[in-house]
Design brief:
Helix content is 41%, strand content 11%. The protein is an alpha/beta fold. The strands form three sheets. It has a six-stranded parallel sheet, with helices on both faces. Helix 9 links the parallel strand 9 and strand 10. Helix 5 packs across helix 10. The longest helix has 19 residues.
Length: 314
C-alpha cells in the first residue's frame, strides 16, 4: 500500500528495486524493515523482483476500486498499520480452529498420527518445527537444523515435506534417526492448527508466513523465527521487536544457522518465561477480537449486513 511513497522518497525505483540498502519505518510504532527485505525484493533474479512488484502495483490499483477491504488480522496485532490505512478492516484471525472445524486445502496428505505421539509427551515440552510449502534448504543447512534439534535434548515434531532441500531428497546425518529415536517425530505434513493447539507444544520454529504467525499467536506460543522470503521478514520484526514473543537466529560467515545457534536460541527462549507470558497476553487480546463485541467480529458483522442490504436493494 505504501509503494508510491517509497518511490517518492527515493527508496526504490519505478521497478521496485531498492536504490540503497537502508532501513524503512512507515510509522513510528511499526517495526523498521530493510529495503532489501521488502516483500518483492527477496529474490536473486531481477526479472522476478520486477514481476512481483508489478503484481503489488496492480493489487493496490484494484484495491482503490473496492468498497470493502477486509484483512485477516486484528487491530490488537497491528494498530499502527491500521491507523496508517483506516480503509483496511480487520476480521481475523480467520482459522478453522476458531469454529471448532477441521482445516481444509493442503498441498500434501496430513499425517495425523503425530497427534497421538504428542499425547505421550509432557506438557509444554515439544519443539514444533515447520517451514510451510515453499521454504527450501541446501543440504548443509538441513543437516544443521537436524543436529540442532538433536542437541536441544527436547522432544521435537519436525515437518520434512517433499522437496524441502535443493537436492532430490533430504538426507539426514548418519545415524540421526536412530539417535533421536522416539524423542523426535518426523512427518511429511502435519495438521498444523491441531498441533499448535496441543498442550505438549512448547514453541514454534518456522518461517512465519502470516498464516503460521496467526496460528501461533492464537495458541499463545513463543516463536523462533527463520524467515525465508516476502512478508516473513516483516512478520519476524513484529514478533521480535513489537510483540516480543520470540527470537530470531544469527547466521555464521557462510550464511548458515548452525546447530549451536539453534540449541542456544531454544534454551534462551524456553528458559525465559517472559516470552510465554507475553504470548499468552497477546493470545487473549487476539481471541477476544473475534468474539461478540470485538473489533473483528463487528467489522465482519457490518460487512454481512452490507451484503444483505445490497441484495435487498436489488
Amino acid at each position: 500500500m505504501s509503494f508510491q511513497k517509497l518511490i517518492d522518497d527515493g527508496i526504490i525505483n519505478n521497478n521496485g528495486i531498492p536504490i540503497n540498502d537502508q532501513m524503512i519505518q512507515l510509522s513510528e510504532n511499526m517495526p523498521p524493515l530493510k529495503s532489501t527485505n521488502l516483500p518483492w525484493t527477496c529474490f536473486e533474479d531481477l526479472g522476478t523482483v520486477k514481476a512481483f512488484f508489478q503484481v503489488v502495483v496492480e493489487a493496490v490499483e484494484a484495491a482503490s476500486l473496492t468498497e470493502w477491504f477486509l484483512c485477516n488480522s486484528t487491530t490488537e496485532l497491528e494498530p499502527a498499520a491500521f491507523s496508517l490505512y483506516p480503509q483496511l478492516l480487520p476480521i481475523g484471525p480467520l482459522l478453522a480452529s476458531n469454529r471448532h472445524a477441521d482445516q481444509t486445502g493442503h498441498f500434501w496428505q496430513e499425517d495425523s498420527t503425530c497427534l497421538a505421539w504428542l499425547d505421550q509427551q509432557p506438557s509444554c515440552s515439544v519443539i514444533y518445527v515447520a517451514f510451510g510449502s515453499f521454504t527450501i534448504f541446501n543440504q548443509t543447512q538441513f543437516e544443521e537444523l537436524a543436529l540442532g534439534q538433536e542437541l536441544s535434548n527436547r522432544p521435537f515434531l519436525w515437518v520434512v515435506r517433499p522437496g524441502m532441500t535443493k537436492e532430490t531428497t533430504a538426507s539426514f546425518p548418519d545415524g540421526y534417526v536412530e539417535r533421536v529415536g522416539s524423542r523426535g517425530r518426523i512427518v511429511s505434513w502435519a495438521p498444523q492448527q491441531k498441533v499448535l493447539a496441543h498442550p505438549s507444544v512448547a514453541c514454534f520454529v518456522s518461517h512465519f508466513c502470516w498464516n503460521s504467525t496467526l496460528e501461533g499467536v492464537t495458541n499463545g506460543l513463543p516463536f523462533l523465527c527463520w524467515p525465508y522470503f516476502a512478508d516473513q521478514f516483516h512478520n519476524e520484526s513484529y514478533i521480535r521487536d513489537i510483540w516480543k514473543t520470540g527470537l530470531g537466529f544469527n547466521k555464521d560467515e557462510a550464511g548458515i544457522i548452525t546447530r549451536g545457534e539453534i540449541k542456544s536460541k531454544v534454551e534462551q527462549l524456553l528458559g525465559d518465561n517472559s516470552f510465554k507470558a507475553k504470548a499468552m497476553d497477546i493470545k487473549e487480546k487476539v481471541t477476544s477480537s473475534i468474539k461478540e463485541g470485538g473489533c473483528s467480529h463487528k467489522n465482519l458483522g457490518n460487512f454481512i449486513e452490507w451484503i444483505h442490504n445490497d441484495t435487498d436493494a436489488l
